[in-house]
Task: structure prediction
Amino acid sequence: MTGEQLSDAGAAEILTVDGVSVSLGGRQVLDEVSFAIGAGEFTGLIGPNGAGKTTLLRVILGLQRPAAGRVAVLGRPRSVRAQPVGYVPQKVLLDPDMPMRARDLVALGLDGSRYGLRLPSKKRGQAVGEMLHAVDAERFADARVGNLSGGEQQRVLIAHALISRPRLLLLDEPLANLDLRSGQEIVSLLARIAAEQQIAVLLSAHEMNPLLPVMDRIVYLAGGRAASGPAGQVVTTEVLSRLYGHHVDVLHVHGRVLVVAGSGDDQLAAVPLPAAEAS
Amino acid sequence: MHQVYNAVFEPGFFASAQVHTAVTLGGLVAVVCGITGVFTVMRGQSFAGHALGDVSAAGGSGALLAGLSPVAGFVGLGVIGAGVMDMIGVQRVRNRDLATGIVLGAAIGLSALFLYLTSVTGATTGAVQQVLFGSIFTTPSGTIPVVAFLGAIALTSLAVICRPLLLATVSPDIAVARGVPVRLIGVVYMLALAVSVGLSSVATGAILSTALLIGPAAAALRLTRRVGRALGLACLLGVLSTWLGVLLAYDSYYWGSSHDGLPVSFFIVAVIFITYLVSGMPALRAGGRTGQPVAPAAAAERDKVAA
Result:
């Protein structure tokens, strides 16, 4: 079954994922996933745990070879050496004993993959300062990264990923370990950066509600298949039921969206989506 | 005044050729170990460093048995040991302890065999003491250029890979995504570590080589928030500890009535240990958000939050 594409991406396509299938250990993790993201678009990659979100991000990064299909960034085939992609991985544990200030980690985003000693440079210091300002991290720029809160560390990692001026920013579950308020701050920060710098942002999350106010598009993954488009068109009872392969209901409760297994369905006990937690 | 001076620097300290050699060798080794050690502590590979020390012991005792300079054995077998550890799986955190433990066990077994054979053949007196616990006072001065050359190789390798190594230490995922050959970087680092530990074995003996590698680096990491400064500080603490250890060992010859000097390795390791303890004093620690030393109450609060 081909992934559904309910509307086309904007004029300038940054990322094209075309019919990507991946099998890991005999299990079909991704099944002909297709979607595209344009410049300045904030896209949520939503799906329950185990839906293949991390695998899809790894394919886009060039770390996982798909069994079929192709990925293009700025129209060119993705390779790990080409650098127009920024990446914030899941669960980066920054050691409190690591002798590194927030600004040092951001500077590593500029030249961390280069060899040899680094010479002092005023220009680099300035670029780091501007980046810290852009993610509102100047307050703790000189603190040890390992001592920062989860939300603060996310800001530093985002600055680290953005300072090399990528056109595409991938974030793997950046909200997973954050409290609600820090999560909202990170989401609005990313939405602002996407719009201001015309960067395509693809953010994975198992919970879509914090993203709904700012998301331009949604890529919904379930059972290895994907549906993409504006959230209002994708997160519907019809589309998601087809995706899951059984009936689910999409409920709107006080501005929040809940996806629950529909009544009369014998798989009711195995609801693959976590219910939205009460706030 | 003069008496105090004489009590600190017992007669002949500055004139002794053995002291000159010990101070030069110790200083060189401490610089190499200080730099390497900072990366070792940050990467959490102290155990691998210790295992390479045991491999060095096997190499040093084997070299003595074969009539070679212990330095060749210390470094040579250490490099081979690092290669074996990498093959077994030092790259994966889960396999790391396993690989390290297997190599460590085999190395100690070899040391036992070589040292036994050395004692039976009677080729060298004091081999056990020399290989395991060091003999910086009796090391020939011709060793200095060899140590300097090997140390320069280790430090040059680290200088070349320092930024990718740092990135891979912060997050292997980010490093891989940026196109850093994380595996290769890890191998180069392990080889530099093996050389550093081998050189450390020259100064303090193979068993105590970890102390010079880890101690000054661990103390330095407590005192600063910046990698560059940690590297400099680790060198400084290592060199001062080694020199103070040499001085105390020299002076110990004049202590008591028996006129037997105490082992220099003991003093070096003791000074390093005390340095590490002192670096943990809250007033000295640099970990705060503002860059100011963290007050004890704030530090406790922070640790609670971190936990």
User: Anything to note?
Assistant: Residues 288-307 of chain B have pLDDT under 50 and may be disordered. Chain B touches chain A at residues 38, 41-42, 159-164, 166-167, 169-171, 173-180, 220-222, 224-227, 229-230, 287-291, 302, 306 (CB under 8 Å). Chain B has 13 helices and no strands.
